[in-house]
Design goal:
This protein has helices at about 5-30, 35-55, 65-90, 95-100, 105-115, 125-140, 140-145, 150-155, 155-180, 185-205, 215-245, 245-250, 255-270, 275-290. By secondary structure, the protein is mainly alpha-helical. The longest helix has 28 residues, at about 215-245.
């Protein structure tokens, strides 16, 4: 049984934890190839979740069909999405463009939810989703304005891969809601990381020299990635999808880039000007509207 307190704080905790993924990627990039880092991360996350399943005596009553859906969900949610984003950024896609592509997920989810799941958005929710997107564009404005057309042309293929990753995580959200509404989330999460590991490890072996430098920075980045992101943030996201409408859960994605911008301002002294602050406020207001029913 999920505690009422956890349900209240889950959205805030998810946004905070997932936003730190941007900072972790910054620390990890000099020390490991992206797909190699992710393959190690998914392997360790699968082991960690297996330990949680055994330690908590989680019910393992999934059917073969549900297990297959769990593996497929992991491929979309982790292997394709994170693999595409990390690879694209490593190939030179500007962080602001990658963040804007990620922000298309709530819009795509809102458009597809009525047809795929029968979810109906109220006018208030539609306004919130639109307002959140406008606010996010303002929050990312300095990074977007710094990007030149020549730079975009040079990374056209990685941008396409980044877009494919966004579509994959959107599909994974609907897949999770439709086919994995039952079953224990601890067991499902374990299967998802197994599925992701089985795809990303061969891809890393084929396309990368599989560089992974063992040092305090890479170990710290990996530990946070596994414990806080793969176990904590993803677990919260799956719980939010199960407990509510996918469009409301997806709207939280809007808050992640602005939150990361605030964290970068506090930790690295990056700029945070009045336009960005205005955008952040609009995004928060939009997500608040989108998360309200009726």
């Amino acid at each position: 049984m999920t505690s009422p307190l956890l349900l209240r704080v889950a959205p805030i905790l998810f946004v905070f934890l997932w936003s730190t993924g941007w900072l972790v990627a910054k620390y990890a990039a000099p020390h490991a190839d992206p797909l190699t880092f992710l393959s190690v991360r998914f392997g360790l996350a699968a082991l960690a979740m297996s330990g949680v399943v055994l330690a908590t005596a989680a019910p393992r009553s999934l059917s073969g069909r549900q297990a297959a859906h769990g593996l497929a969900s992991g491929v979309m949610l982790h292997a394709v999405y994170l693999g595409a984003v990390w690879w694209a950024i490593a190939q030179g896609v500007p962080a602001g463009i990658s963040a804007l592509i990620a922000a298309l997920q709530p819009l795509l989810t809102a458009l597809a939810a009525p047809a795929l799941l029968g979810e109906r958005l109220s006018n208030r929710q539609k306004l919130g989703i639109g307002l959140g997107f406008v606010g996010l564009v303002l929050a990312l404005a300095p990074k977007l304005m710094a990007v030149e057309m020549a730079q975009l042309r040079a990374v056209a293929v990685p941008i396409g891969v980044n877009l494919a990753g966004m579509v994959a995580v959107t599909a994974a959200t609907f897949h999770q809601k439709r086919f994995l509404a039952g079953g224990d989330l601890r067991v499902i999460s374990t299967l998802q990381y197994v599925g992701a590991f089985l795809i990303v490890l061969p891809a890393a072996w084929l396309f990368e020299p599989m560089r992974f430098d063992i040092n305090p920075a890479s170990i710290a980045a990996m530990a946070w990635s596994v414990i806080a992101l793969s176990v904590g943030a993803i677990g919260l996201f799956l719980m939010l999808i199960r407990r509510g409408e996918v469009s409301r859960a997806a709207a939280l994605i809007y808050l992640i880039p602005p939150t990361a911008a605030v964290e970068s301002y506090l930790m690295f002294g990056e700029t945070l000007n009045p336009v960005q602050i205005t955008g952040l406020c609009l995004t928060v207001a939009g997500v608040w509207l989108a998360s309200r029913a009726g």
